Q: What sequence folds into this?
């Protein structure tokens, strides 16, 4: 599959062949949904925590005799039925939300999302992406040039996939609204779906192949 390659000025400078085993995979929404839900669950932090009757303050003495007063049977004042008593069936921070997904499923779902980006013309390839200084205006200018020259790239969030860590680029892009930077080896379904467009230099394709097509 051939796609156009642009330079920093937004000009077409050639074409490149995308590996079909990564960028030409049939989309399965059920698999992608399963992987994304697992990612969201694994990121979840169990913060909410209520105290049960063993944790609230109060005496453990039986509040009145079992029989003889004509009242309902009760134990101590810390029971959930009383004010300031423990909470019954409330959220606990010990709860584990993590969901395990096989690596092959996660990799397959990633390839599906990448393939869909190509089919929807939401993948923008650059011949190179480097800046000399961590200046926000330099990255903003590159994106602006591309938006002016590419018809369907007029608006929408952008995820920049870089082949290796580039501190200048990370610092320069972090102040631009709806623009994120991620190393190609860390690409995943959730981040790809959170951004409309995927922008990356040609070098990132080799990094994706190296990371996700290991035998």
A:
């Amino acid at each position: 599959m051939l796609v156009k390659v642009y330079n920093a000025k937004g000009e077409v400078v050639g074409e490149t062949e995308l590996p079909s085993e990564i960028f030409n995979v049939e989309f399965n929404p059920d698999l992608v949904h399963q992987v994304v839900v697992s990612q969201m669950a694994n990121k979840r932090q169990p913060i909410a925590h209520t105290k049960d009757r063993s944790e609230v303050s109060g005496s453990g003495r039986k509040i009145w005799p079992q029989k003889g007063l004509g009242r309902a049977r009760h134990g101590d004042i810390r029971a959930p039925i009383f004010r300031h008593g423990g909470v019954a069936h409330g959220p606990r921070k010990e709860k584990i939300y993590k969901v395990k997904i096989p690596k092959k499923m996660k990799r397959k779902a990633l390839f599906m999302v990448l393939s869909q980006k190509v089919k929807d013309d939401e993948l923008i390839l650059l011949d190179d992406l480097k800046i000399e200084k961590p200046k926000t205006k330099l990255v903003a200018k590159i994106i602006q040039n591309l938006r002016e020259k590419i018809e369907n790239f007029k608006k929408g969030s952008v995820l920049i996939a870089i082949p290796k860590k580039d501190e200048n680029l990370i610092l320069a892009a972090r102040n631009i609204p709806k623009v994120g930077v991620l190393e190609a080896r860390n690409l995943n379904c959730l981040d790809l779906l959170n951004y409309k467009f995927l922008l990356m230099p040609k070098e990132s394709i080799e990094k994706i192949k190296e990371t996700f097509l290991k035998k």
About this structure: Residues 49-96 form one domain. The helical segments are 20-23, 29-43, 103-119, 136-149, 167-173, 189-194, 203-212. The longest strand covers residues 12-17.
